[in-house]
């Protein structure tokens, strides 16, 4: 988890740097992407910048999710995963996953809008049945942990 946290921030810094460079040296970026300098090419570049900006929004969301996952792993290591905090953490992770799915759909929509025969763009973004299933399952898992916590507290109270 700690490695993922670091890689998340490194990836975000690289995307931010690349985004900034597209403004500093637009001509080179357009040449590297084989985009013409006509109105269609400029619209494509602006769309790519928008996609990068939305991608940057995912960085803090990923960070919040990874930090919560790390805390859950720590409680599992300690031998007490069924605590109320983990139920709240899982619930928060589910909301973060929901936000990431919405971001993916927005990015996919922008990609579809700027893609053309002259400038084709193929992104691994958009609607993902598996992604949405993970959102639902994480909400369910959060509820399971909440119930497990209550059962554990009841058991400890009877002993």
UniProtKB/TrEMBL annotation:
Q: What is this protein called?
A: DUF2975 domain-containing protein
Q: Does the keyword Repeat apply?
A: no
Q: Name one Pfam family in it.
A: DUF2975
Species name = Sphingomonas daechungensis
Q: Does the keyword Membrane apply?
A: yes
Membrane-spanning parts: 5-24, 44-66, 87-110, 130-146
Signal peptide positions (record): none
Keyword annotations for this protein?
Answer: Membrane, Transmembrane, Transmembrane helix
């Amino acid at each position: 988890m700690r490695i993922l946290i670091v890689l998340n921030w490194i990836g975000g810094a690289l995307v931010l740097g690349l985004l900034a460079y597209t403004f500093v040296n637009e001509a080179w970026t357009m040449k590297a992407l084989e985009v013409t300098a006509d109105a269609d090419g400029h619209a494509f570049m602006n769309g790519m910048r928008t996609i990068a900006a939305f991608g940057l929004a995912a960085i803090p969301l990923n960070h919040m999710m990874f930090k919560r996952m790390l805390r859950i792993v720590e409680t599992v290591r300690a031998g007490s995963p069924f605590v109320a905090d983990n139920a709240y953490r899982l619930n928060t992770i589910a909301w973060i996953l929901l936000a990431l799915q919405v971001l993916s759909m927005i990015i996919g929509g922008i990609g579809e809008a700027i893609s053309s025969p002259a400038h084709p763009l193929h992104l691994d973004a958009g609607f993902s049945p598996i992604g949405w299933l993970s959102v639902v399952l994480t909400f369910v898992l959060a509820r399971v942990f909440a119930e497990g916590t209550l059962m554990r507290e009841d058991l400890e109270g009877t002993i």
